[in-house]
Design brief:
Blueprint lengths: L2 E2 L13 H11 L8 E6 L5 E7 L9 E6 L9 H12 L3 E6 L20 H11 L6 E7 L1 H12 L8 E7 L5 H7 L6 H21 L15 H12 L5 H8 L12 E4 L14 H5 L4 E4 L19 H11 L5
Parallel strand pairs: 1-9, 4-5, 4-6, 6-7, 7-8, 8-9
Antiparallel strand pairs: 2-3, 3-5
Helix pairs in contact: 2-10, 7-8
Length: about 325
Amino acid sequence: MPLIADSPYQAPFYQFNGHLQTIIPSLWRTVPEVRYQRERVETDDGDFLDLDWSRRPVGQPCDTLAIVSHGLEGDAGRPYVRGMVRALNHAGLDALAWNYRSCSGEMNRLLRSYHLGDTDDLDFVVRYALGTARYRRVFLTGFSAGGNVTLKYLGENAARVPKEVQRAAVFSVPTDLKASSYQIGRFENRVYLNRFMKTLRAKMRQKAALLPGQVDLTDLDALLDFPQFDDRFTAPMHGFKSADAYYAHASSGQYLSGIRIPTLLVNAQNDPFLPPSCFPRDAASGSPYLFLETPTDGGHVGFGEGTPDGDYYSERRAVQFLTAEVPG
């Protein structure tokens, strides 16, 4: 029954609520030590993915790789990704932070982009990394949307997951996408929603310019929240009849019982993005593999400690769990 009842995490005193714990790390953190080597790989459907590698120095071979999946409208350059990569490297692991389609700074080629239930691209990245013949173990980490994709990947068809994928640690995960989409639309969360909507609208305009006649921008600016946007664009562009159908397929909560490797899920109780249904206590209680930790503090993709540029609890916790002899 891997319910972790007592989390040791406490936010810095000046971050005294979930909003500050979310915003301060996002706006003021820098992680300059990380130096990526970018690799573009062609996908089987004629598109591409940009992979950002951070490997140990030449002459110090490593047989373990950690793959990091970023959040909605994020990329490998976000401070929370770079912080995790730095911590993984310091623990002696190679790291690969991959950018979803349309998230690497260049629009992808196809009408499809990425969505929160798209596990095929994660599977592609895992298998591509294993195909380098450098690694005998792979760990997965993910934040928010990337955490949802990771959990779904591990649980929807455990037989598809390569045996080299041995552990995972994810943070701030909206395991119930429909409820989360309404949660972020609440008045107190509109500052976050408006920021997401701004970048999503911009990408639709880029997509329309890239693929003339394939994207109808009518009423784009009238779409005010995720359910409206997902019903209008995300769902039909990725083969779903509606936003509700997309949320029903993509939410990772329904797949948790299928996970067959030790997996840590850390969701803060004061996360402004997460409704009560995103704390899957029953699933963790019934699984020998899913470890659920619900600290009082943390915000959304926060978990800061000490100075903004130092190590964060999410990074220390991920390294601890992934490299432990007996995770927990």
